[in-house]
Design a protein that fits this description.
Helices cover 16% and strands 41% of the residues. With 418 residues, the chain is α+β, with helices and mostly antiparallel strands. The protein is rod-shaped and about 120 Å long. The two termini are 69 Å apart. The relative contact order is 0.09.
C-alpha cells in the first residue's frame, strides 16, 4: 500500500475489525438462532471440509459507474491472487450485506455456503465526483479478518491504477496470512459448565491472570456462559468460587464440539472437625477427637480420648485402657488438594485398669505424628502413625523409652469438618 493511503485504509479496516459483535441468547438449542435478525449469533461451525479456495464476492450489487469500478476491482484482485498462486473464484451473486447485519458473520456464512475457506468482499460506491472502494478478507470458519485495503479517488481513468494498487496490497496481506498459517477458529457457541457446587460463580481470568470477568452462577448444576470469542484449543484461565469455599483456578483448552466443561469441586472452608478413629493397638475400641482450628484448614489443636480393651505394649492382663491426649498439628499441603499431608505432636495420659481394680497412670509424649488424609467435601478419611515415648512415671506400668514394640501405632480415621 502506498504511504499516502495508509491512514484512510487503516481507518476503514479498524472500523471493520472492531464492529460490534453479535448478541447471543445464552441457552439456545440452535447455534444459528437469531440469524437474519438484529441479534445474529456467532459464526457457525463449517459443515465438512472447506476447499482452499478464496471466494471473491461483491459486498452488494452496484450499477452504473460504481458497478464498473467494482468490476475492475474484482478483476484486479483475482489477477493478483493468481499471480501469487492462490486459487480463487468469483461468487455467482453478491453477498448482499445489509446495514443491520454483522459483516464478518454474514461474509463467513456466505463463503461456507460456497465451500470456500476464505472470502474477499469487494465494494465500490460513488461519492459525488469521487469513487470509494474497499477490499475486506475474512476467514470463513469464524469471520476473523485476514487483511484488506481501502481508498478513494477522483472517478476517472487515474482511479484504475489506484484500484490495481489496492488489489495488490490486499492480495499481499492475504498471502502473508496464509503463509503464516491461519489461527485456530473461534468458538461457534457459548461454553457450558457443569458443577455439583450450586450457586458457584464462574469467571474468566482471575488467579495469576489478574482481573476476572464474571460469567454467571451454577444453577441446577449447569451454566451456559455468554459467548466468548475464544480460539479452539488455545489456553483460557477461569476461576470458580462460592462463599464459604476456597476459590479454584483452572485452565481450559476449549473444543468446538458442544461438550460441557466439568468444573473442579470446591473445597469448603473449615473451622474444625470431629474425628472417629481405630487401628493397630485399638481394634477393640474407638477414639474420639476434637480438632478446633487455630488457622482454618492449616493449624489446629487436638483433644483426643480413646477407650479400648487390649493388652498393649506387652501389658498382659490389662484389658481396659483409657487414654486422654492433647496436642497440636498443622497441614503441610494446601487446602485445595484432595490428599493432604500433616504433622502433629502431643502428650497422652493413659489410665490402665487391671484385674485387681487398681488404676495405673502413664504419660507418653508423641514426639512426631504423621497424617495422610483424603478430603472430599465436608468429610476426610485418614491414616495416622504415632511413635509415643513413655516418660516412665512411678505410678505407671510402662518403663521410660520408646513404645514401639511390634511397630508404630497406626490409626484409621473418618472426620466431619464444620
Amino acid at each position: 500500500m502506498k504511504p499516502s493511503r495508509i491512514g484512510a485504509a487503516t481507518a476503514v479496516l479498524l472500523c471493520l475489525a472492531f464492529a460490534p459483535p453479535p448478541l447471543l441468547a445464552q441457552d439456545s438449542g440452535d447455534p444459528g438462532a437469531g440469524e437474519g435478525s438484529g441479534e445474529a449469533g456467532p459464526a457457525l461451525r463449517a459443515a465438512g471440509k472447506l476447499d482452499e479456495t478464496v471466494l471473491v464476492a461483491a459486498a452488494t450489487a452496484r450499477e452504473g459507474d460504481a458497478g464498473s469500478f467494482l468490476s475492475s476491482l474484482s478483476t484486479a484482485f483475482v489477477a493478483e491472487l493468481s499471480a501469487r498462486g492462490i486459487a480463487s473464484r468469483n461468487a455467482e451473486s453478491p453477498a448482499s450485506i445489509e446495514a443491520d447485519q454483522h459483516e464478518p458473520t454474514r461474509a463467513a456464512e456466505f463463503a461456507r455456503e460456497a465451500a470456500c475457506f476464505v472470502v474477499a468482499l469487494v465494494d465500490a460506491r460513488m461519492e459525488g465526483t469521487r469513487v470509494a472502494w474497499r477490499i475486506a478478507v475474512y476467514d470463513a470458519r469464524d469471520g476473523a479478518m485476514l487483511g484488506g485495503d481501502a481508498w478513494s479517488a477522483y472517478a476517472g481513468l487515474s482511479a484504475l491504477k489506484l484500484i490495481e494498487d489496492s488489489a495488490a496490497s490486499g492480495a499481499a496481506e492475504l498471502a502473508r496470512a496464509l503463509e503464516a498459517g491461519l489461527p485456530p477458529p473461534r468458538l461457534s457457541a457459548p461454553l457450558r459448565f457443569s458443577s455439583v457446587d450450586e450457586g458457584a460463580l464462574v469467571s474468566l481470568g482471575g488467579g495469576s491472570a489478574g482481573a476476572s470477568l464474571p460469567l454467571g452462577v451454577i444453577e441446577d448444576g449447569l451454566l451456559v456462559a455468554p459467548y466468548l470469542p475464544l480460539r479452539v484449543g488455545e489456553r483460557a484461565d477461569f476461576t470458580v468460587e462460592r462463599e464459604g469455599s476456597y476459590p479454584v483456578n483452572f485452565t481450559v483448552r476449549p473444543r468446538d464440539d458442544g461438550s460441557t466443561v466439568a468444573l473442579p469441586r470446591l473445597v469448603p472452608r473449615s473451622e474444625g472437625s470431629f474425628v472417629l478413629s481405630t487401628g493397630r493397638g485399638r481394634m477393640s475400641g474407638l477414639g474420639f477427637e476434637y480438632r478446633p482450628a487455630l488457622v482454618p484448614d492449616f493449624a489446629f489443636l487436638r483433644l483426643d480420648t480413646a477407650l479400648f480393651a487390649l493388652a498393649r505394649y506387652g501389658l498382659k492382663g490389662a484389658p481396659w485402657i483409657w487414654e486422654l491426649r492433647a496436642g497440636a498439628g498443622l497441614y503441610l499441603t494446601p487446602p485445595g488438594w484432595s490428599f493432604r499431608l500433616g504433622a502433629a505432636t502431643g502428650l497422652a495420659s493413659m489410665f490402665t485398669f487391671v484385674a485387681d481394680g487398681k488404676p495405673y497412670v502413664d504419660l507418653a509424649l508423641d514426639t512426631f505424628s504423621l497424617l495422610l488424609e483424603y478430603h472430599r467435601g465436608r468429610y476426610a478419611f485418614g491414616l495416622e502413625t504415632r511413635i509415643p515415648y513413655s516418660l516412665g512415671l512411678a505410678s505407671g506400668l510402662i518403663q521410660q523409652g520408646w513404645m514401639d514394640e511390634g511397630g508404630p501405632l497406626i490409626l484409621g480415621s473418618v472426620a466431619w469438618k464444620y
